[in-house]
Amino acid sequence: MKYIEFDANRKFDLTLLGRVTIDFNPVDYYMTLAESTTFKKYLGGSPANIAVGLSRLGKKCGFFARVSDDRFGDFVTGYFEKEGIDTSRIRRCEHGEKLGLTFTEILSETSSNILMYRNEIADLQLCVDDIDEEYIKQSKAILISGTALAQSPSREAALKALFLAKKTNTPIIFDIDYRPYNWVSNEDMGIYYAFAAKQADVILGSREEYDLTEQLIEPGRTDPQTAAYWHKQGAKIVVIKHGKEGSTAYTCDGQKFTIKPFPIKLLKGFGGGDGYASAFLYGLMEGWEVIDCLEFGSASASLLVASHSCADDMPGVEKVKKYIADCKQKYGEMIARA
Ligand SMILES: Nc1ncnc2c1ncn2[C@@H]1O[C@H](COP(=O)(O)OP(=O)(O)OP(=O)(O)O)[C@@H](O)[C@H]1O
Ligand SMILES: O=C(O)C[C@@H](O)[C@H](O)C(=O)CO
Questions:
Q1: Which among 7, 58, 116, 331 has most CB atoms closer than 10 A?
Q2: Which residues surround ligand 1 with Cβ inside 6 Å?
């Protein structure tokens, strides 16, 4: 069953809007960030990771972003170019704003945290002049990452992109993407997350992220209630993630599909969402059944939480398929299908 119509005549498979940052992950881990002394630098930022993930899976991505006008801006732009992600809409900040830096802490085999430096942040300088209708018309779909709604002028840029996507019949994917930094209040999230979700064809989020989105509408909903509400608003697919417990996709025709994580030795508890999103969306674009998209996303997510980085370790199609096949051979065909 196809829930989203992608226009095959458009140049980009997906154009993403949001932050491009840098991750510094500890080489000496199983200790606090204060104790770690050596870090490996990776491209970061959830939407940027998703773009890399889709590129590794053979998809062509466009991107709306502002980056710092310094060596870190050079690094992330050069990384995108090497991955084949279009950089024509990546613009440099003009007033010294800084690229977001995420320092990660891998405390133990089951606990990790991230510390994000986002003062005078470059990505929130994205502005309405950066968003053009022609570029969106060249995109089979657009993904808005929720943190882009945290502050102006990025907020208005994201709202303009939503408006132009609707105008050009471009499917909208809203990744709620809760990061507490840069939001003035939870109420702001309740306003802007909800507005974006009302425009979306596909919504991706954890239970916590839906709770933040629904706080001004009806707090305390169950997953089925959440899905039913957003389907009424026009969403075709509502994906609700529950970390290591797995995730469920609710489709607008009343079906639900649940997937569990594949068995893996966890290294870090983050990055799974980006691997999940890129692989799930890949399956959608390939016209797969939703359960197969979920399985592919879940497998990619498991590979990512077992890896030291996010972007650098985004897998190709064959790696994900082999991992799924190996797990099924070892644990049984229904290993992840609840
Ligand atoms: N401990 C784990 N073991 C195996 N898979 C996991 C684990 N944690 C997360 N995942 C996988 O990653 C997917 C997304 O993780 P999660 O639900 O935490 O979303 P998220 O908060 O968006 O992730 P991120 O931390 O990347 O932002 C899960 O649905 C699951 O498939
Ligand atoms: O999304 C962020 O800004 C943090 C990322 O850079 C980091 O890789 C992560 O947590 C991915 O989910």
A1: 116
A2: 206, 241, 243-244, 246-247, 261, 264, 266, 269-274, 276, 298, 301-302, 305
pLDDT tens for the chain, 338 residues: list them: 899 999 999 999 999 999 999 999 999 999 999 999 999 999 999 999 999 999 999 999 999 999 999 999 999 999 999 999 999 999 999 999 999 999 999 999 999 999 999 999 999 999 999 999 999 999 999 999 999 999 999 999 999 999 999 999 999 999 999 999 899 999 999 999 999 999 999 999 999 999 999 999 999 999 999 999 999 999 999 999 998 899 999 999 999 999 999 999 999 999 999 999 999 999 999 999 999 999 999 999 999 999 999 999 999 999 999 999 999 999 998 899 97
- In short, whether 270's Cβ falls inside 6 Å of ligand 2 is yes
Q: For residue 32, report the distance from its CA to the centre of ligand 2, in Å.
A: 18
HSE on the CB side for 249, CA within 13 Å? 27
Closest ligand to the CA of 304: 1
Closest CA to 279 of 84, 56, 86: 56
Residue 294 C-alpha to ligand 1 middle, in angstroms? 13
pTM score, whole prediction: 0.98
Q: Name the residue of 302, 303, 320 whose CB sits within 8 Å of the most ligand 1 atoms, as the mutation to test its pocket.
A: 302
| Torsion angle in degrees (nearest 10) through CA of 146, 147, 151, 155 | -40
Pairwise CA distance, residues 1 & 289, whole Å? 6
User: Phi, psi (5° rounding) for residue 284?
Assistant: -60, -45
Please tell me the distance from the alpha carbon of residue 213 to that of residue 193, in angstroms, as a whole number: 5
